[in-house]
Amino acid sequence: MRRFVMALCLVLVPEAALAWPSWLSFGTEPKAVAPRSRPPGLDFGDKSKAGDCAITFDDGPGPHTGVLLELLATHKVKATFFVLGQHARAYPDLIRRMLAEGHEVENHSWDHPDMRKLDEAARRKEIEDTMAQLKSLGADPHFFRPPYGAYDPALVELARKEGLEVVLWSRDSEDWRYHSVSAIEGNILPAGQGAHGIFLFHDIHDSTIAAMGGVLDDLGAHGCRFVTMGQYRIAAAVSPDQAPTRPTEPHQR
To answer: Is 108 annotated in the active site?
Structure first.
């Protein structure tokens, strides 16, 4: 009997050790996703074509976005804006201007919740209300960036059903924390690494707008070829099997 119990433990313990911990902050265990049925998604590492730099801005538009658009025009850079639905409603002319000037406008939720903490109906409303607002202004979003970078497999699948691909970033400026060109550059251009990837900024901070001219000059000097998120995605050509399948820790705003 003792040998039988020991043998049973050897079989069950490894499986239990791999079970999804119920105490983790990102909720209940997600449903298993078969490798062949994973929704398409980006590998968030630097898998892009060498030199491709996707400049992205979150949380806007806001009072400083018009100045940023002038700066981008001066530098001949096309960016991707992950906007909030409520801000798009407040600044519709800025959304139209982004589109008219060749930038991409994408979905960042309606009012910036942690999507993992919402039920399915609330998640869908965040995405669909923003989609409706952006489409009414002439945008045609293809990507969804979850607030704080917080997602789970169910959110990736929901976005896919809405015709959106979940994307994050590979170079975080942490411009919400640091407010100088040197500090921001230190985050997006680590020593010994090339200038390429998906760069995250926020156009709601005036300090970010003030720093962007110097940041873009430096990125260009390091060999950046500025592309939109859509162009980056095509160049990356990442296999669907590399889709994100586990939740992430939240990113500070």
So the answer is: no
> Is the peptide bond between 14 and the residue preceding it cis, with omega within 30 degrees of 0?
no
Contact 31, 232 (CB under 8 A): no
CA atoms within 13 A on the CB side of 64: 14
Q: From the candidates 52, 58, 59, 152, which is the catalytic residue?
A: 58
Q: Catalytic pick from 87, 152, 202, 203?
A: 202
In percent, the amount of the chain with pLDDT more than 70 equals 72
Longest dimension (CA), the chain: 79
**CA atoms of 40 and 232, how far apart (whole Å):** 15
Task: Decide if pLDDT at 115 tops 90.
Answer: yes
* The pLDDT value given to residue 61: 98
Q: Exposure string (b/e) for 225-234, b if CB count within 10 Å is 16 or more?
A: bbbbbebbbe
Q: Alpha-carbon distance 157 to 163, whole Å?
A: 10
DSSP assignment of 150-217, as one string? ---HHHHHHHHHTT-EE---SEE--TTT--SHHHHHHHHS-TT--S-EEEEEETT-HHHHHHHHHHHH
Print burial letters for 174-188: b (CB count within 10 Å at least 16), e (below 16).
Answer: bbbebeebeebbebb
User: In this model, does residue 164 exceed pLDDT 60?
Assistant: yes
Tens digit of each residue's pLDDT (9 = 90 or more) over 15-47: 333 333 333 333 334 343 333 334 344 455 555
Other Cβ atoms within 10 Å of 3 Cβ, number: 7
CA-based angle 27:29:34, to the nearest 5? 135
| 103 counts as catalytic | no
